[in-house]
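quick one
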Amino acid sequence: MAVLSIVLPAYNEEQNIPNTVTVLSNLLTEKEIAYELIFISDGSRDGTFAEIQKAAEGNPNVRGAEFSRNFGKEAAIFAGLEMAGGDAVIVMDCDLQHPPEIIPKMWQQWLEGAEVVEGIKQDRGKEKLGYKLSAGLFYKVMSRLIKIDMNASSDFKLLDHKVVEVLLSLPERNTFFRALSFWAGFRTVPVYYEVQERQFGESKWSFFSLMKYAITNVTSFSTLPLQMVTVMGVISILFSIVLFIQTLAKFLSGTAVEGFTTVILLILIIGGFLMLSLGIIGHYLARIYEEVKGRPRYIISKVTENVHGNIIGPWKTK
Ligand code: UDP
Ligand code: MG
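structure w/ uridine-5'-diphosphate:
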């Protein structure tokens, strides 16, 4: 019988865990889908892991792990994929903003032969205006740069175990889960859903963490910023040629150039371009440095205790 693994990254979600476990297990039992729930506590500072352990004791289909510190949602997703043993794996938020009713639809698509089922957002629900602005802007820039419509796509998706294996075999550490499943290809089917309101607690994203996320993801998926450096260089050279000709013409016609305004402007423009370019190159260099060091993407400090005697899993760090 085919088993569905559900991977749920959780950062400071102690209030959400019990409810999420109940909702999901009731739904999946009712739909007669064999399942396992895998919670990854991303270095939470509250009782998230204790709640996961409690849930695991009450339900043999629940297990989870705790990170040694906060490694980010991406890392938590990959840890979950690594632990998942199902024939298909769904990744979803544990605050139930990804509506559970969609799960049976995704499962049905998988049964019918889909290898990737993409959860596509229809709207972002009732979120704060500031969040909407920053997230909206963020996804627009992202979509342009990596040529995937990020505005509608999300981390809520189902992957066949083949696809999971492909993603886990990628050597890179700075990943972007949302775009990687597009990149990997496979038979993809969309499923539409509406973002729900958060059950408990608050969103973990601030404007700055979103910005950092944006820069990391753009640079992990596109070298366009590096090519921009070249374009900017060409533009400033063209500009200086024009200026040179103009100055020469003025000199020959006898109207001498007065003051240093042009010189100062040129220095500022070229200096600005140079610093920006160096910054972009520096960022990519830092990324290469991080990849080359080959540090693990996450460190697991605890796993749920095997109270039911039927839990197996490759508890290795990766
Ligand atoms: N999350 C995580 N690590 C983090 C931040 C968030 O695992 O560093 C989890 C969080 O617990 C939730 C999901 O990622 O299950 C989405 O986070 P959140 O609800 O804060 O984001 P939003 O829904 O507002 O985009
Ligand atoms: Mg959320």
